[in-house]
Specification:
By secondary structure, the chain is mainly alpha-helical. The chain is built from eleven helices and three strands, in the order H-H-H-H-H-E-E-E-H-H-H-H-H-H. Helices cover 60% and strands 5% of the residues. A three-stranded mixed beta sheet has the order 1-3-2.
């Protein structure tokens, strides 16, 4: 018979194998950080850093979220809260709640428009992490809510992006896209059944789909995002005068 410590260790290993919370998709998370010189030799890393800087400086979605995070007491720093890494081939980025760090998959993000969407998507997770007590690891409904918001507000489900995926629809298509992408995101990072993921999304969908903070509207385009950014700045000025 196994001794209690051995049994506990075995149980812990089995639990870890059962659900690694998506870390298998980001293998560089468990590696020793490379030196700047070594990383600089890889064009993927350099390109990732350049595209990230461009997004943070010029993209209205990202600029609004950075300002909202700062207003909420969670200032984001480029060198601390973003990390360009190699990832599994099926993902473009992720939010590591344990370190409050956004992972950008340098081997999978090749275009500036893609970087803009990934950074925005993950910054929405960071905003939710900052403003609410999100139980990312044990409460699948919490995860579902943030995934719904990220798909809804990041531009993931714009008409052009859906056409690029060869998905077409008219009435209710945006909601269908948001629901589908939220389910897919949950299945990518949690070892749960599709039925469990769909149930979690359905149970919180209405409330989380209609939670439009900090945009105040669903930004279907950069023009929408720019208007939302101006509204956010004006709202802050109004509150400041009260």
């Amino acid at each position: 018979a196994e001794s209690p410590p051995a049994a506990e260790k075995k149980a812990a290993e089995e639990e870890e194998e059962e659900d690694d919370f998506g870390y298998r998709l980001f293998p560089d998370r468990n590696k020793k950080p490379q030196s700047f010189l070594v990383r600089s030799l890889f064009t993927f890393h350099n390109k990732c850093q350049l595209m990230l800087r461009m997004t943070l400086e010029t993209n209205p979605y990202a600029r609004l979220l950075l300002e909202a995070l700062k207003q909420s007491g969670c200032t984001v720093f480029n060198d601390r809260h973003f990390s360009c890494e190699n990832c599994d081939g099926c993902v473009s980025g992720g939010f590591d709640a344990a370190t409050s760090q956004i992972v950008l998959c340098q081997n999978n993000i090749r275009q500036q428009s893609h970087m803009n969407r990934v950074v925005t998507h993950e910054l929405i997770h960071a905003f939710d992490h900052c403003r609410a007590h999100v139980d990312w690891f044990k409460n699948v409904k919490h995860l579902a809510c943030s995934e719904i918001r990220a798909a809804n507000l990041s531009g993931d489900c714009t008409l052009m992006n859906e056409i690029a995926r060869f998905k077409f629809g008219l009435k209710g298509h945006h909601q269908t896209c948001v629901r589908d992408r939220a389910v897919r995101s949950i299945l990518a990072v949690r070892k749960v059944s599709k039925e469990t993921a769909e149930k979690a999304v359905d149970e919180v969908f209405d409330a989380c789909f209609n939670d439009l903070e900090p945009f105040g509207r669903i930004p279907h385009s950069k023009a929408d995002a720019r208007r939302a950014y101006r509204d956010f700045q004006n709202r802050d000025r109004y509150y400041a005068n009260l």
